[in-house]
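Our consortium's second objective concerns turning raw sequence data into structural hypotheses that experimental partners can test. To show how far this objective has progressed, the report includes one record in full. It was chosen at random from the queue rather than selected for favorable results. The single chain below, 98 residues long, was entered without modification.
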Amino acid sequence: MNLPITFHRAASAEFIEASAWYESKRLGLGLEFMAEIDRCVSLVSEHHLQYAVVREDIRRIVANRFPYSVYFRAEKHRIVVLAVFHGSRNPAIWLARA
């Protein structure tokens, strides 16, 4: 069952910011990043229980090719994306959203 996806405001901002950064490095790379995060989010929508729990009810899917993970919480009728997060950043930042 595909659950609808909702992005936390900060996660949406991170996603946009990272896409713009990659696009500034090479034309088209931002679109490739967006496609990879979209792929991750689609997988989460379909199979959210298969991803590792990283804290309490928060799970993570790791992106391919890019050093990013998508942190999310599965609720009864939706998935909430808490962060689109670079692996080298301090996790306390996204944990505050939980």
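The partners drew two points from this record. The two ends are 24 Å apart (CA to CA). The first helix runs from residue 9 to 25. Both points have been shared with the crystallography group to help prioritize constructs.
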